[in-house]
């Protein structure tokens, strides 16, 4: 892996390689370039859960002609790249990748044995069909219990490899009221869930980042099940545009600036 990256940098195949380096015992995202090529020997495959693809979108936005190499450390990283390419956040002509899979996506979840959560909430090992086995009022009440724990830290959005909007609806006061904790529920979570339709690749990073132990993947899996049923579209695998990237002729959006 190190030899490949060194060769790519020296021959100009990539201008920058985004990978991991161990710093003070911690595996951290790191930029490797000709300016620090002696550090390539410290490049590690890593089991760190960062959105290197998201970092690449930030670099590409400022330097659209830059050739970028990216380490694929998890098996869903390629799906994230596919989504970001489909949504025009990355140009595949400028991206090179190295597979060094060490970690599956999503991570395995331990059974949640907390009695209160079992009685009132939703565990992370559940699948959408388990939730549908509850009647509608109970389903609603269990989701509301989970949403009520949200502290609006935005960790789920910030870590998500396929959350890339410059202006986020979750911060738009017309969509989600401000000044309250928990944030306006269930709107905060439903706005994010709708935005993940046709985008979420089920990497599990949001759930890992959530300090409130909310089973976010469960919600987004349900949303993507609907997308699969209605549009026969599978996120990260279908090479076509997401059905949600095209607005119908009758849709009229009145834009309201976020920072009025
Ligand atoms: S699982 Fe969470 S972090 Fe991963 S793509 Fe889906 S919403 Fe984003
Ligand atoms: S990471 Fe969890 S607590 Fe933070 S905003 Fe997202 S759902 Fe809420």
Largest sheet: 5 strands, mixed
Low-confidence stretches: none
What order do the helices and strands follow? HEEEHEHEHHHHHHH
Ligand list: iron/sulfur cluster
Total number of helices: 10
- Structural class of the secondary elements? alpha/beta
Instruction: Provide the β-strand percentage band.
Output: 5-15%
Can you tell me the overall shape?
globular
Mean pLDDT: 89
* Oligomer state of the chains in this structure: single chain
What number of structural domains do the residues give? Answer: 2
Helical fraction: 25-40%
Radius of gyration: 20 Å
State the total count of DSSP E strands: 5
End-to-end gap = 48 Å
Walk me through this protein's architecture.
- With 260 residues, this protein is an alpha/beta fold.
- The chain folds into two domains: 102 residues, no CATH class; 117 residues, no CATH class.
- The protein contains ten helices and five strands.
- Strands 1, 2, 3, 4 and 5 form a five-stranded mixed beta sheet that branches.
- A hairpin with a 2-residue loop joins strand 1 and strand 2.
- The mean pLDDT is 89.
- One iron/sulfur cluster binds next to helix 7.
């Amino acid at each position: 892996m190190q030899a490949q990256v060194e060769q790519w940098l020296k021959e100009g195949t990539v201008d920058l390689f985004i990978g991991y380096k161990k710093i003070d015992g911690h595996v951290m995202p790191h930029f490797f370039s000709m300016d620090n090529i002696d550090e390539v020997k410290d490049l590690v495959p890593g089991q760190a859960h960062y959105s290197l693809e998201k970092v690449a979108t930030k670099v590409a936005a400022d330097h659209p002609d830059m050739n970028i190499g990216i380490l694929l450390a998890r098996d869903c990283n390629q799906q994230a790249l596919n989504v970001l390419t489909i949504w025009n956040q990355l140009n595949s002509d400028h991206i090179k990748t190295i597979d060094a899979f060490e970690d599956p996506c999503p991570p395995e979840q331990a059974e949640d044995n907390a009695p209160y959560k079992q009685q009132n909430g939703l565990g992370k090992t559940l699948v959408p069909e388990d939730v549908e086995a509850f009647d509608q009022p109970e389903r609603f009440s269990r989701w509301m219990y989970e949403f009520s724990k949200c502290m609006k830290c935005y960790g789920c959005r910030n870590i998500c490899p396929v959350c890339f909007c410059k202006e986020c609806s979750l911060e738009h006061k017309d969509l989600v009221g401000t000044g309250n904790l928990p944030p306006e529920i269930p709107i905060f979570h439903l706005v994010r869930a709708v935005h993940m339709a046709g985008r979420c690749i089920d990497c599990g990073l949001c759930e890992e980042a959530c300090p409130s132990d909310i089973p976010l993947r469960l919600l987004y899996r349900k949303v993507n099940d609907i997308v699969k049923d209605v549009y026969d579209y599978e996120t990260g695998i279908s090479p076509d545009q997401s059905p949600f990237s095209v607005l119908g002729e009758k849709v009229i959006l009145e834009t309201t600036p976020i920072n009025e």
